Here is the input.
Amino acid sequence: MDFIFLVFSSLSLLADPLNLTYVILGFVIGTVFAAIPGLTATLAMALLLPLTYSLSVDTALMACASIYMAGMCGGSITATTINIPGAPSSMMTALDGYPMQQQGKGALALGHAALGSMFGGAVGALLLIAVAPFVAELSLLVKTTGKFSLLAFALIVVVIAQRGRIPQAGLAACIGLMLATVGLDAMEPITRFTYGYSSLTAGIDLMPVIIGTFAIAEVLMQSCTRTDISAATAAANKVKIRRRDFLPPLSDIRKIGFGCYFKSCLIGYFVGTLPGAGGSMGSFLAYTEAVRTSSEPETFGKGNPQGIAASESANNAVCGGAMVPMLTFGIPGDPITAIMLGVLVINGIQPGPQLMADQAGLIAPMLATLLFSAVVLIPLTLWLIGPYFIKIVSVRKDVLYAVIALLAVVGSYVATYSTFQMFMALGMGVLAFYLRRNGFPVITMLLGYILGPNLEEFLRRSLALSNGDPTTFFTNPDSLFFVILTLVFVYFLVIRKPAQKPAAIKTK
Amino acid sequence: MFLHRQMIFLYVTLAVSAGYLVTALSLGPPIAESGLTPAFFPTLVGGAAIVFCSILIVQALQAKPETAPADDARSYTHFWVVVAIFFYIVAFKPLGYFLSSGLFVFALILLFSNFEKLILKAIISAAIVGIAFVMFQQLFGVRLPTLWG
Here is the structure.
């Protein structure tokens, strides 16, 4: 209860002009990046990561929270107007959003998307605020062996969640783990895999990994797969978007039903708590559920606002869900929470069970911002810049990618003022580029890199405590719980056949 | 079939994984009397990487030629972007932020567009570099290298 009170009292921090400026700026940048096909809010956050050095931790985390929320709803703009989702999480929104645009109801579709995002973001944030303290208390019960099993569970789930490309995901995770082992050993004074380079003794820094993986790799991807959206934006420009059309009529909202909104939020929230699942899976499952329970399933894919509401409520609720494992166990749920984790680590804060207990005052403003972004900034952004969205996404790509490359390379320099980190970012960018180009999920590589050091340390500590007896992972209740949970996920994600996709999705 | 783009990537990854495993084994025995050594975890990871690589190589070799991903129209822009970033980093300190960044941004704009309207693109590059300088140095207090020290 104290934590809930702390979060709501943290809303007062938004009255500080500096904090409010960064939160609003973060939201606008997140929206623009999510709206432009080829760019993502993850990229925006990766580019802004170096700048967090000069900000206070709570301001940086507040800006991150607003970018995260903006990133989830911004993708719906191009998904609706030009049928190209700005972010993968808005893929399902395009199924009904674009048909509505073609029917001349584009503004209304954007209004439904914003309402769904607002509802989903708010419910996800409230659930996070209510649940996180209890999960944090429970996490204190997890001891060394349990921590290893939990991290192994997270890594295995991230790998097996990549249905159809599990070997690729496994290899990517191994590459991440390899990167994590570079440098000084955590338990003995031995350097590993440095090959004589003293700059590698402290290990590979998080900053070049994030900038390389998300910013430089994206520039390289875009250089060989240029998306020409000029024809689509020209067509969309012909449809006049007026502010008064954004407001969904009450009859539409009643028809969608509170149940659909709320169920989608819950789906999104719980999907968010799973490592590596992300917004696209949340919106896909919520959309599927909306089609399954609808009395008019044949209308989905032809401009049914319920599809937009389900998809957007779910992907914004993911924001709250993904922060639960990040804040309580230090396990990021998706790339954006991985970068948030980076912000904490860069500032010397160790995420994990003690974080909520010791640094609640630092976390509370971030959660308050998440709620503020959902309830205030989503509708406000739509109202203020909604009619100009198409003009924003028509920005010159040559200039855009040159700016991104400049910010990425210079950004990797600011951490240590050394060109070594710039070369490291370039190396990571090239690696991530080839991984992506060959169908390897980079999120598993990133999670392997982030979780690797603790995974190794807890494995060695557990076996040292049990005199080398590996059955310790099955005899300790906390560890056994995660072992069983891993087996349950392996059964549902690998052994059991996947659920059939609804017809509306299949045809698309 | 044996040497298309994805296969080359897999062979390189396999070679790197094997090199990693050899280095891990050279750290000493993975298990000692006192418990697991610093070599244990890397040995495990290196071994797993080789297994995954082998699975992917076998899968790719077993795939029918028509199902193997065909190389799309060759574009080397990404290669030139990497080259541009490399030389930018090399020149960053000796040439200073302004000159190196100006050339870098101009080169990237050309790589992402074409060789027309060069003066306009040069002006845009200068403006971007100036704005980024103000943002980094003035707004966020980051010291960037300049020719005047």
Summary: Residues 279 and 403 of chain A are 27 Å apart (CA to CA). Chain A has one domain: 2-237+247-507.
